[in-house]
Design a protein that fits this description.
The protein is of the alpha/beta class. Helices cover 38% and strands 17% of the residues.
Amino acid sequence: MTIENIELTQFETVSGRTQFDDGPGRYRIGLVALSNDYVTELDFMNMRPSKDVVVYTSRVPNTPDCTVETLQKMAAHITQAASLIVPEGRLDVMAYSCTSGTAVMGFDKIRSLIHAARPGIACVTPITSSLAALDKFNAQKIAVLTPYVDDVNADIAKYIERSGKTISAFTSFKIASNEEMAKIAPESIYQAALAADRDDADALFISCTAIRAVDVIHQIEQKLGKPVVTAVQAMYWQALRLSGYNEKIIGFGQLFSV
């Protein structure tokens, strides 16, 4: 039988009763990642506790360099990116994966841009999630490590200090290129984190979703003996909690046990 000879009456209906469930994923996270983000999706999958947790991703255009000026340009694309994530389906929470972008544009603006596509949905960002994570540890004095150049560092520092926390020390790789950030070896992040810490710091915060800090959280915490919060880790943790997933996850820092 050839396709040309098939009549519509020859297509048979499935026999028996078709059963439906709620579809894939008991806990559904929408992720708005940057066009040149190599890390967030990989980290989300590596930390995924079970197939009950699913992540649906869209991307926003981003420039090769990370500066205050270039970060602001993403605003024009966030609503469209959010609108493309299973638009007729259920999502529990939406994550915007740019720490510095949130610091520059402000959480309220990011949330309003997402709500333009998904009214009322819970929203998380790396820096607001990281501050919530630091609150879980009652950490007030923070050592900070970032990959950014100084104009971006200044906005990160202001955002942290406006939350009421004190910065004990602020250390940076001072890299503008998003491509280079992604190529920072985890071992270099580990060594830089040890150097960035201070004895009087209650916790260490490693900013930026472009760097592979999740790979070395456990080792850094073991060496420092204090909580370590990273941008992707904290955003994933808060997204999971807001979606309703509250179980512990082992191997990616103390945060998943609080």
